[in-house]
Structures are given as C-alpha cells and as structure tokens.
Design brief:
Layout: H1 2-13, H2 18-21, H3 29-32, H4 38-53, H5 61-72, H6 86-111, H7 120-132
Helix pairs in contact: 4-5
Length: 155
C-alpha cells in the first residue's frame, strides 16, 4: 500500500500541470502595474478578467497575484492620499491652532477690566448681607458654626 502511494507520487512529480504552462500575463505585478500608464493598466485588467473567467484551479499563481494586485493594490484611486510626513504637519497645525487660540483668549481676558463685584470688599459685603438676611440657614453662610469663606474668592 505504501509502495503504491510512493510510486504514484513519483509519477506526479515528473508531470507538468496546465497551470504552470500558461505564461503569466504580468510577472511581478506589484512592481510593474503601478508604473504603467492608465490605458495600459486598463488593457492589463481586461486580460486578467479574461483569465479570471477560466477555471480558477488552472490559473497560475503569478496570474492570481496579478489579479489580486490589479483589483486591490495601492494604485490610482486606491493610492494612499497622505504622504509620509503629513502626520507631523497635522500635529503641528493642531498645536499651532491651539496655541493661537489660547493666546487670543488670554489677551482678551487680560485686556478687559474685572467687574466691580469681583473685588474683595464687595465679596465681604456680600457675606455680611447673607448673614443679615439669613440666606441658606441650614448648611450655608448663615448656619451655626459655619467656617467657610462664603462669597470671598481668591482674587
């Protein structure tokens, strides 16, 4: 039984299959297809589509690779839109935009004078008013034993 299998395998190795006799339409498709002009690429795709109509088991490996690359490879519309180094441009653009917006915000905020209600005297008078009128007597400034700052903020 093993002898018959070994003899059968020896016969198969000397045989040439049909898929190896077909000349590949495009060898090294990854290197050559992207360099072709657009009309030549269309012709190659037509040739490859004719090969695809045949029995798939009889198509050579080179032709299968060429078909795959022509269909899904990074060329024409499938070419990546971003180039190397574009990520850094985007990063520095975003950082620059944030820096400009923070600078403008700081300049505007510092150029406008503070309202009179933000002075320490006003806030202390607000504390006295809250105690006199018994504002928030349960847990706020008018409650017994209150030790907070009330309306006074760091200024």
């Amino acid at each position: 039984m093993f002898r018959n299998a070994a003899v059968g395998a020896a016969r198969l190795t000397g045989r040439r299959f049909q898929s190896t006799t077909v000349n590949p339409v495009m060898s090294h498709a990854e290197e050559t297809f992207g360099k072709l002009q657009e009309p030549a690429q269309r012709e190659e795709v037509k040739r490859l589509s004719e090969i695809m109509k045949a029995d798939w088991h009889k198509v050579s490996i080179e032709n299968k690779r060429a078909i795959f690359y022509a269909t899904y490879g990074p060329h024409n519309r499938r070419r990546p839109r971003s180039k190397p180094g574009d990520n850094w441009k985007v990063f520095f653009g975003v950082v620059g935009t944030i820096a400009v917006s923070v600078t403008i915000s700081t300049l505007v905020r510092n150029s406008v004078p503070k309202p009179h209600t933000m002075t320490k005297e006003w806030q202390e008078m607000s504390n006295e008013y809250a105690r006199e009128h018994n504002i928030n007597p349960i847990s706020g400034i008018s409650s017994e034993g209150y030790k907070g700052k009330g309306f006074v903020q760091n200024s």
